[in-house]
Specification:
Length: 476
């Protein structure tokens, strides 16, 4: 069945206070396609996690920006050299297609190399002192310093990339980091940890802990020794963490409901290609993936037909087959939830053009036309391989629908009209407007984050480093 040799199950240990730590109780990880046991991780209690936090807080790093950059550079090339093994590991634990897993490894290398560069570019500023009489004969500086201990809480959908997008800027900025990977796909975080340690990250600057989130979450988020929490996950969990954290720095990257708007003059060929890539990549489990296609009536018929045809041609199934486009969702429960959301949309009047035939944790690419914008699957984040088409009379209505949910992460618009572009930029309540591009557009050096209930703060290596430092004012 598998396109390559299946590795042995990996039974990981946590890394606490510079030591490998095990527990009698363990959490098993199974491949969602085969059901095979692929590994296990310890279930630590609050005491062990508190020990990890306190040890990080008590350590004073003495690494220059140059040294931190060199370590990140070394780690990037180590991951690049192990690309196939790491990609297979991602597929083993998450069911992500091998094609997508290889892309995840490439993205991780890009993040680390960008952090290598940006670690040497963390700058403050000199402030004018003659703007007020109190500043006479003074030199005033705003200097950036690492916040201290950063808790990184990551989700299942990109089990390697989501860890790297937090750890790389945290370490690059000189912080100490405690990582809590998702219990659904935790193994890639441990593989990254080993590479970082082998590349020279001081063991006193990093920890990885696993356990039941509700049991260890209060220590990870609420401890007075934690200076910042960076979280990616659901909006509901983000709200709870914000309440638990108290007064400390927070970056929350929560839910999204990202629209692709196709105007009357939009390129339908490009719209189809972007919609397929953005709605179905990683089985639709993407924060910035396309969750809604808002199409003008004049192009909607052609768009719907061609989108369904191209979606049917995608290969959905065995994630270990290098030709597979779409693997499983993270588990069967997630696939059942997506199936239910589509059923509800059909009851609201939507028409299924292709897909909607679940098999265990597999859910094929599903295109729906004439979706009611009030349907739950387009009001809330569906997080599966679905592409609902909502027909709009004009751009004003499309923007109104796009803004009608509690989310505001990314967006895309296809048009050649400068007035349309201006309108979208000014009126869309989102963190990014991508013109003639999908909301899924991604680079490691640009800011990423949302407005409204999609989160606070910004990721993207340079911007994450700014979040993970504080300004100390120096008056001479």
């Amino acid at each position: 069945m598998h396109a390559m040799t299946k590795p042995e199950a990996e039974h990981m240990q946590c890394f606490v206070a510079g030591e490998w730590v095990d527990s009698s109780e363990r959490l098993e990880v199974h491949n969602p396609y085969t059901g095979d046991l692929v590994g296990s991780v310890p279930i630590l209690g609050p005491g062990e996690v508190e020990r990890a936090v306190d040890a990080l807080a008590g350590y004073e790093p003495n690494l220059s920006a140059h040294a931190r950059g060199d370590i990140l550079y070394t780690a990037a090339h180590a991951i690049k050299a192990q690309k196939e093994d790491i990609a297979l590991g991602i597929t083993m634990e998450s069911g992500m297609s091998l094609k997508n897993s290889r892309g995840e490894v490439d993205r991780t290398v890009g993040l680390l190399l960008t952090a290598f560069e940006e670690a040497k570019r963390i700058t403050g500023e000199q402030l004018p002192s003659d703007t007020d009489s109190a500043g006479r004969d003074r030199i005033i500086l705003g200097m950036r310093y690492p916040v201290g201990v950063v808790t990184a809480i990551v989700p299942f959908n990109r089990p390697l990339n989501q860890v790297t997008v937090k750890v790389a800027p945290s370490f690059g900025a000189g912080n100490k980091t405690i990582i809590k990977p998702t219990e659904k796909a935790p193994l890639s975080a441990f593989r990254l940890l080993r590479i970082l340690l082998d590349s020279g990250v001081p063991p006193e600057m990093i920890s990885v802990v696993t356990g039941h989130p509700r049991e260890i979450g209060e220590v990870l988020v609420g401890s007075h020794n934690v200076d910042m929490v960076t979280f990616t996950g659901s909006t509901g969990t983000g709200r709870r963490l914000a309440q638990m954290a108290g007064i400390k720095k927070l970056t929350i990257e929560a839910g999204g409901n990202d629209p692709l708007i196709v105007c009357d003059d939009g390129d339908v060929d490009k719209a189809v290609s972007l919609a397929v890539a953005g709605a179905f990549g990683n089985a639709g489990q993407s924060c910035r993936g396309i969750k809604r296609v808002l199409a003008m009536e004049s192009v909607a018929d052609e768009l719907a037909q061609r989108l369904a045809e191209k979606s049917k041609a995608l290969k959905c199934g065995n994630p270990f087959d290098p030709q597979t486009d779409i693997g499983t969702l993270i588990d069967e429960e997630a696939a059942i939830r997506v199936e239910g959301a589509v059923d509800a949309a059909v009851k609201d009047g939507a028409e299924v053009l292709c897909g909607h035939e679940r098999e265990g944790a597999l859910y094929p690419p599903t295109v729906l036309d004439r979706v009611d914008p009030r349907s739950d699957m387009v009001v809330n984040e569906c997080f599966g391989p679905t592409c609902p088409i909502i027909r709009c009379k004009d751009l004003e209505q499309a923007v109104e629908i796009a803004n009608s949910t509690e989310y505001g992460l990314q967006s895309g618009i296809l048009t050649k009209n400068l007035d349309n572009i201006r309108y979208a930029i000014n009126k869309l309540k989102v963190g990014a407007v991508n013109v003639n591009e999908g909301p899924q557009f991604d680079m490691p050096n640009i800011p990423f984050g949302g407005v409204k209930q999609s989160g606070i703060g910004r990721e993207g290596i340079k911007y994450a480093m700014q979040e993970m430092t504080y300004v100390k004012t120096v008056v001479i």
